[in-house]
Design brief:
The structure is a single chain. This protein is of the alpha/beta class. It is built from six helices and six strands; from the N terminus they run E-H-H-H-H-E-E-E-H-E-E-H. A six-stranded mixed beta sheet has the order 1-4-3-2-5-6.
């Protein structure tokens, strides 16, 4: 069974997300002010910007609410609004020659497991594509439809059987040694996003 699958791609690393938020906050503030359902209280641009920066840096909605006094529901609406302003497709300046693929496991609630499938360029920082769903081939297919046109020479993975259903024979390298880029990006996701944070370690054992 496939979960609520989402697909998006970005061209910047985690550190550059804050700069992107600053660039689009002026646009998002206009949209927020024009909707009474999203912002009936008329918060200033500085308040919105600070709330979004806190979220991007890994603080959860309850924590932001306690510090700023802004309802977590309002903050969620701002985050959703900013998300609609981000590009839906990766505009490649250079086509990756070697790609890396990995899955990041997390939970919704206590028992419901979900996976974040990520794709990165082996030679450059930043997550180029991801999809959220279960651990099935149907979920990865959504991501593969976005990245297969890169025609990478090789794909580096951890040997998940799902990948062999999509990657042509001879184009996959199974090696944890050469997955440092995608593992590092996944570690940063766990570090900066409160939703993915582990109570013990931010990285897999």
């Amino acid at each position: 069974m496939q979960w609520n699958v989402q697909n998006a791609t970005v061209t910047t690393s985690i550190k550059m997300v804050i700069e992107k938020v600053n660039k689009i906050i002026s646009v998002s503030s206009v949209a927020v002010n024009s909707s009474q359902n999203i912002n009936p209280y008329g918060y200033s641009d500085d308040v919105k910007r600070n709330c979004l920066k806190m979220y991007v840096n890994g603080m959860g909605f309850p924590g932001i609410e306690r510090i700023t006094g802004v309802s977590r529901t309002t903050i969620m609406d701002w985050v959703k609004l900013v998300g609609t302003l981000l590009p839906d497709a990766y505009e490649a300046e250079t086509i990756p020659e070697v790609g890396e693929l990995d899955e990041l496991e997390t939970f919704v609630g206590k028992k419901n497991k979900i996976w974040v499938w990520t794709a990165v360029d082996h030679f450059q920082a930043g997550i180029l594509g991801w999809v959220v769903g279960d651990h099935s081939a149907e979920t990865f297919m959504v991501l593969w439809q976005t990245i297969f046109w890169w025609q990478c020479y090789f794909w580096v993975s951890d040997g998940n059987p799902v990948y062999t259903k999509f990657i042509p024979a001879g184009d996959q390298i199974v090696s944890k040694t050469y997955m440092t880029r995608v593992e590092g990006e996944n570690t940063r996701l766990r570090h900066y996003l409160a939703r993915l944070y582990r109570k013990t370690l931010c990285y897999s054992k």
